[in-house]
Amino acid sequence: MEIKKTNNEYNSFDIDLIQNEKVLSIYQTGADINISCKYEDYRKISSISFSINNNQGEVYSIFDKFYRDIINGNIMGENENLQSVQEQMQCEKRTSWYEALVQNNIITMLCDAYPIKCPNVLKISKKDNNIILTFDKFDGEFPKPPYCVTINIRQSGSRIYEFCIPFKTLFKQLQTVEDKKDFIKSLTKKL
To answer: Can you give the pTM of this predicted structure?
Structure first.
């Protein structure tokens, strides 16, 4: 996996993870976080999947923690060993918005940028040490770019309540990953 970081106007980096002709981009627009997926050669798509496996070192660790925190109801990413955090996680998992987003260990995220009747959808699952992000584009009366599927996660005014927090944490943690091939970095750590 190749990792590219580009300076943006928000004093952070836009992140591109490139693998098997696919590009997973995570970037900031104002207070919002966006995740998009496309082919490097700009093929038209309506659905695309991007897989991050446990051989991809630091990137996998960051996505795995992100996934586990959401599945476990640890939306704030706090220390799970504290009794108060355990209680908060149990309460979180009983909220209607959480139950709508997390079912059968699959996280289903609707894009905040489109109306509920035709949003792009991101499903995040884990299988055999792979974090799989599947992007689906739903056409409707609102035009969408033909070459990528983008999910917008709003800081405020979101239909997913505080679900933006794990995505902001994911984005922040990816800022620290070095701008090169992750597998080389993980091999050097072992030496």
So the answer is: 0.85
